[in-house]
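Researcher: Going back to the complex we discussed earlier. I've cleaned up the inputs and rechecked each line, so this should be the final set. Can you rerun the prediction on the complete assembly and write out the structure?
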Amino acid sequence: MNTPAPPVLTVSGLEKHFVLHNVDGRRVEALRGVDLVVRAGEHVALAGSSGAGKSSLLKCIHRTYIPSAGSVILRRSDGTEVELLDLPDHEMAALRGRELGYVSQFLRAQPRRTPLEIVVRAAVQRGMDKAIADEVAADALTRLRLDRGLWDVHASVLSGGERQRVNLAAGTVSPPRLLLLDEPVSALDPANRDAALELIAGLTSGGVAVLSVFHDLDAMERLATRVVVMADGRVVGEGAPSVVLPDLEVAR
Amino acid sequence: MTAEWVLSVRGLGKVFGPVSDEVIAGTGPEHGSAKYGPTGSVVAAWGVNLDVAAGEALGVIGESGSGKSTVMRCVVGDLEPTVGSVVLRRSDGSTVDIAALDPAARRALRIHDMAIVHQNPVDGLDLRITAGGNVADRLTAAGWRSFGEIRTRAAELLDRTEVPLVRMDDLVRDFSGGMRQRVQLAKALANNPSLVLLDEPTTGLDASVAAGVLDLIRSLLDDLGIAAIVVSHDFSVIEMLTTRCVVMHHGRVVESGLTDQLFEDPHHPYSQRLVSAARA
Amino acid sequence: MSVSAILPDARPANVMDDGATREIRRAVLTAIAVPGYQVPFGSREMPVARGWGSGGLQITLAMAGPDDVVKVIDQGDDEGVNAVNLRRLIVAATGADETTVPAEATIIQTRHRIPEDPMHNGQVLVLQVPEPEPLRGVERDTRELERMHAEADYARLWVSLYEDRVRNGVITQTTGYPCMVGGRDGGRYVISTTPIPRWDVPRLHRSAFLSLFGAGRAKRIYAVPPDTDVEPLTFTDVPFEVETTPGAACERCGSSESYLVSIPASDAAGPAVERWVCSDTDWCRRRSESQP
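Model: Rerun complete. Updated structure for the full complex:
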């Protein structure tokens, strides 16, 4: 990128601690002041050992966790910026999906819907026309190699890997400006995983800002434009994958 | 962004017995009780604020005695609040304070603008009449006078709530628990209400039956875009159906938030206890 | 010899005191002023058992005087034991004259029927009502019943009509068919048209005469004034129908256009053929006599 695009996400001084009232009021630190910027078209992969705070960071941005201090500013598609930490719950709920997506390892329980319905519905929720959504959803499921025979069965009968692909398709059709990916391919076999990574790679080239957590370095290498290394709730390093990842490999 | 609230509850309080500053200050979660010893007053609910927008489901979670039923009864108009307002926005855009209505106006509101699905089907259905007749009850109350149109609409509603049409003319008395709840849902939706209250809609059903009814409710809420309040002591019900919720304890709202946040990052000691109990 | 003949006073037999008379007249006036509304009154002990016409009797006794002519029918029959007894009592107590011909009567007290002859303006039909509450079948709680009438909440009555039609294919309710007094749009109260059959219900609609319903046991009086709409509760797509038996005719006068009742087959051996006669015996007699 020659001229850096304006940041879609600006995280500064983000802290998160938990107070466990029922365990003697114990305080658990998860994030100790994180600064981070993700621009349009960037794929920032979070690296670091388990417990470093990667998932906590994604959840704080998504407001699944309430940050204890700091700031999370999202630039919306209309160009305006909004402080997510101050946003009333109902506005945050409305923002989710449309401007800010979160794809976890798991498909949220909606067992009565078919895979196609789930994906179409997600696209329509983000403002896409129903007719176009049908096409786009079919395309996403095809690209993720979900057997066509499974498109119209209840999602409850799907295997873990199949559900994960449905979840990924739903999270990425008509993608929001900022996509948070938390181990979205963890349950996939190599061939399907490959297809999924290709789909995710396509998002960035379409201008979506991605912040991800993958447990394998290979995925990061393929997808990330930048890697941010976390340890003990802090950012301890960052750089191009080609620079950062070999060090991590050694550390491992 | 200004949300169009369908229901807005402000400063709602209901006290049984004498009320004073001491009574309010001397009750609540930090005192471990909704009852004020010196006067015997029970502060069933105090300082409750709730908002629900169209297409949104709000959860109210708490144990029995937490005040969630009191709040619901005030919303429905069965109980007159001691203080506060309960404002409903009708489909024509007009607003009305339920707490200030006379009983007839309240009843009319419950025919046209809001509906309740009770935990116990006996509270919401007449078991001595047919499934279609129970739905017809709402339609005739709203002025439907064509037998054919009533039949068609009742069939459509029962079909939507997955009651087999061959059972439309069977007495509800002969229906299973899950099927009775489906009839209640059909009846509740009969007049396209702006707000539906679901009071422990699956409590008392077998787990597999409850799952089916929850699925149905979820898809109805998704498809119809009505505002809903889901009252439950069961976190899994709240998680499945709602995007936001409040936690009540000893007559007060101790915490409110996005449902996934309340489940993953509860702050109040009581919420944390509830969540860890639900996960156990 | 009638009692009135040996007593000089115009109101000879002291069946009802002046206080009761005044109270019932007030109740009747209220009932006329609020058509269809069930006016409570202090039902008195009558020389007939409650449930045997004591409500109708009290209305007639409170209204009738020596200038009146009274006809009393039971199941359309002037000569039924109950009709005869009530007529004797009314005549004795009020000094009124008696008749069987509807056109001659100023007051017609009835159980079960409205005479086949058209009644005219100025006449009063007094009905002996066993159960005045049209909502009794759907609700038993008195306070809830009051609320339903107060708010004109008749949804459950409609549901019972729906259920009747669903379960039986037709509306099976015979006597006491619920009607909105004042019409579908202008109406306020639903009444039970007990004890008359559906056949007679259309005669209440915009009638020339005044109808007073008296329920002794339930202590209620309600009224349908002349020229008042009385609309049976019917679905817009299911027309109100009166009872008919195709092919049936009165075996005395040959009528097939009056309300017929079946009579028990005679004990003589032979094919069991259903036999019919007019319920209105006076009408039937006059019709027979006028035929060659």
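Model: Worth noting: The mean pLDDT of chain B is 92.
Researcher: Good, that matches what I expected from the previous run.
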